[in-house]
Specification:
By secondary structure, the protein is an alpha/beta fold. About 35% of the residues lie in helices and about 30% in strands. Strands 3-2-1-4-5-9-8 form a 7-stranded mixed β-sheet, sandwiched between helices. The protein has one domain: Vaccinia Virus protein VP39 (Rossmann fold), CATH 3.40.50.150. α2 runs parallel beside α3.
């Protein structure tokens, strides 16, 4: 499908539509990459930086990672633009030390946190500079930002738009596709992501006061019959807020 003009309201509506299906995928463990790879990775990387941290989870969605982080942190704030997802998060993934906020990251007004996580979030942001600037203001100087994104080199192949005439790896392109995971296959709902080269993410974060501390390529679960797990489909970064 060719690129389409999108707004944040469009993206929020898409995640509202998919909220129930997505909840079932995560609750049942069907999305093995999320449950077995990404969520444990974020919890581990958070806990090794302290057990009394105040944490923000931007793009928290249904709150599964938020709830897991609450078990190794003193306080967690989850932020998302999908109202339906947040309602379900409050009902099913609440805790005494969790607070959920409905709205765009740019509108959040909280005391600076020690650490922020952005799990599979930045690729859904239409204006990467605006979002990263807002995230930087959520984090104390010397605090951390943990990020995961789909690997932009392999994802166009995975989604099947690599050979389309409108695709160019070196450009920022808004793409709408049927939502899928490696283990659940293609669903009936469509979601939007923004293809960007890796350099776009790193440069945006560096422009807004972050220093890259660590970079990893994540292969995820292995499904040989579908050629999944052979290549790193996700990237993980640790940034530190320097100023």
């Amino acid at each position: 499908m060719a690129p389409l003009p999108k707004t944040n309201s469009d993206i929020a509506r898409e995640w509202d539509d998919i909220a129930v299906e997505r909840f079932n995928q995560l609750f049942s463990g069907e999305d093995r990459t999320y449950n077995e790879v990404l969520c444990p990775l974020f919890v581990h990387e958070t806990s090794k930086r302290g057990t009394d941290l105040k944490v923000a989870d931007v793009g928290c969605g249904l709150g599964f990672l938020t709830k897991a982080l609450s078990e190794v942190s003193s306080e967690v704030v989850g932020v998302d633009i999908s109202q339906k997802s947040l309602i379900m998060a409050q009902e099913r993934n609440g805790a005494e030390n969790i607070r959920y906020i409905f709205g765009e990251v740019e509108s959040v007004n909280i005391a600076p946190v020690d650490l922020c996580v952005a799990n599979m979030f930045l690729m859904d942001c239409l204006n990467i500079d605006s979002v990263v600037d807002s995230i930087s203001r959520l984090i104390k100087r010397g605090g951390w930002l943990l990020v995961s994104i789909p690997n932009p080199f392999f994802m166009p192949r995975y989604w099947g738009y690599e050979r389309n005439s409108w695709f160019s790896y070196n450009k920022e392109i808004v793409v709408e596709m049927p939502f899928r995971t490696s283990t659940t296959g293609v669903g009936i709902y469509k979601t939007t992501h923004v293809h960007r080269p890796v350099s776009f993410y790193i440069n945006a974060l560096c422009r807004h006061g972050f220093e890259l501390e660590e970079y990893r390529e994540i292969t995820g679960v292995v499904i040989p019959k579908r050629n999944i797990g052979k290549y790193p489909r996700h990237l993980f970064f640790v940034f530190k807020r320097s100023n």
